[in-house]
Automatic annotation (TrEMBL):
GO biological process, any: tRNA methylation
Species of the source: Bremerella alba
E.C. number: 2.1.1.192
Name listed for the protein in its UniProt record: Putative dual-specificity RNA methyltransferase RlmN
Enzyme class name: transferase
Principal location class: cytoplasm
Family in the record: Belongs to the radical SAM superfamily. RlmN family.
Length: 357
């Protein structure tokens, strides 16, 4: 049975029936581009075609468990439950201009175990399937349809390391950018990684216009690997060489994400190291204010003065610098925070009683 996003397989199956191929195309437009509910998208199809889809497609592999709307700004956090009871987060970000970005998850938990990240502290890592990754976009667009909006930009900045789940992430990106499915241009997507060199290059080759972000956070090897245990196996030299091989241009700079941590990453000397690291790389630096998380009491976010000073040093070296404005502070914006404990509990139950899961 083909997945709903496997266009080649569906077309092959109905290759002698052009009318069905045509009505399937209409259905996909209504469902994926217009954000209609599955049953509504089926309503204009011939009954026999609608019955085939009802019988063979699982439209929503995720169940929306909770929706939290920020009272401060245009953020909505969606908490989804997978079939085996684990939770993931997706965030809708509405900007003042009316544009909407969606922050999606690619894994449950994350093996990189970054000290500052609630997802990394979750103690469980499981890949999301391509259908689960895509369902976050499908369900967000259904919510946004009620507001006459559609997701415009999609960022893989939710839970998980996308390049630890490359097969499913490649499939999901191919579906999102396929004119026959979601029809987003590659430029509307951004994949953020902690830095998995081979996978970054492979992705760049397949999707040369999808934006890439590297979560660097420090250009000092000792500090970086202290914050990101996975960095012990990836040297800064290797990362630098990887960045220099990406297909960058005026329209596609690599985004360097840099977490501002007091006395660890935010000193003027740290800015100088960052500038040296980025020499000859077409990069845009995004400074990230730290959202404190449980169990990381030794980490403190930088003051605004330190952040501004750092930004000025990097700007003077010729790099565009932005400071990330964190939306949804009142709905626990730091990804994974809300569900960290719940997932740990479920994972513990699974381990102690595997027969029931
Ligand atoms: C959750 S990660 C997911 C994508 C990928 N694994 C990565 O690290 O780039 C997305 C971004 O959130 C940042 N982040 C994680 N925990 C944070 C926190 N407590 N405060 C601020 N940013 C955080 C990460 O450093 C990363 O730049
Ligand atoms: S910051 Fe990214 S790589 Fe690090 S633990 Fe969190 S999700 Fe994983």
């Amino acid at each position: 049975m083909p997945y709903w996003y496997d266009i080649t397989a569906w077309n092959e199956r109905f290759r002698n029936d052009s009318q069905t191929v045509h009505s399937l195309r209409k259905f996909r437009t209504r469902w994926l581009k217009q954000g209609r509910a599955f049953e509504d998208a089926l309503s204009e199809l011939a009954p026999n075609v609608a019955d085939i889809l009802r019988a063979e497609i699982t439209p929503h592999p995720l169940t929306l468990a909770e929706r939290l709307d920020s009272e401060l700004d245009g953020a909505t956090k969606l908490l989804f439950r997978t079939a085996d009871g684990l939770m993931i987060e997706t965030v809708i970000l509405r900007t003042g201009t009316g544009r909407v970005s969606l922050c999606i998850s690619s894994q449950i938990g994350c093996a990189a175990a970054c000290r500052f990240c609630a997802t990394g502290q979750m103690g469980i890592a499981r890949n999301l399937s391509a259908a689960q990754i895509l369902d976050q976009v499908v369900q967000a667009n259904q919510i946004l349809r009620e507001e006459d909006r559609r997701v415009r930009n999609i960022v893989f900045m939710g839970m998980g390391e996308p390049f630890h789940n490359p097969t499913n992430v490649h499939q999901a990106v191919a579906a999102l950018t396929s004119p026959l499915l979601f029809d987003y241009s590659q430029q509307r997507l951004l994949v953020s990684t902690v830095g998995i060199p081979d996978e970054m290059l492979r992705f760049d080759e397949h999707f040369p216009k999808v934006n890439l972000a590297l979560s660097l956070h420090s250009a000092d090897q000792a500090v970086r690997q202290d914050l990101i245990p996975l960095a012990k196996s990836v040297s800064l030299d290797r990362l630098q060489a990887t960045l220099s091989q990406l297909q960058l241009s005026d329209k596609r700079q690599v985004m360097i994400e840099y977490l501002m941590l007091e006395d660890q990453t935010d000193r003027p000397g740290d800015a100088e190291k960052l500038i040296r690291f980025l020499e000859n790389i077409n990069a845009h630096v995004n400074l990230i204010p730290y959202n404190s998380i449980d169990g990381a009491d030794h980490l403190r976010g930088s003051s605004q003065a330190a952040r501004d000073h750092f930004a000025n040093i990097v700007r003077q070296a010729g790099f565009p610098v932005t400071i990330r404005y964190s939306l949804g502070a009142d709905i626990a914006a730091a990804c994974g925070q809300l569900i960290q404990r719940e997932n740990r509990e479920i994972a513990k139950q699974m381990r102690s009683n595997p027969a029931t899961t």
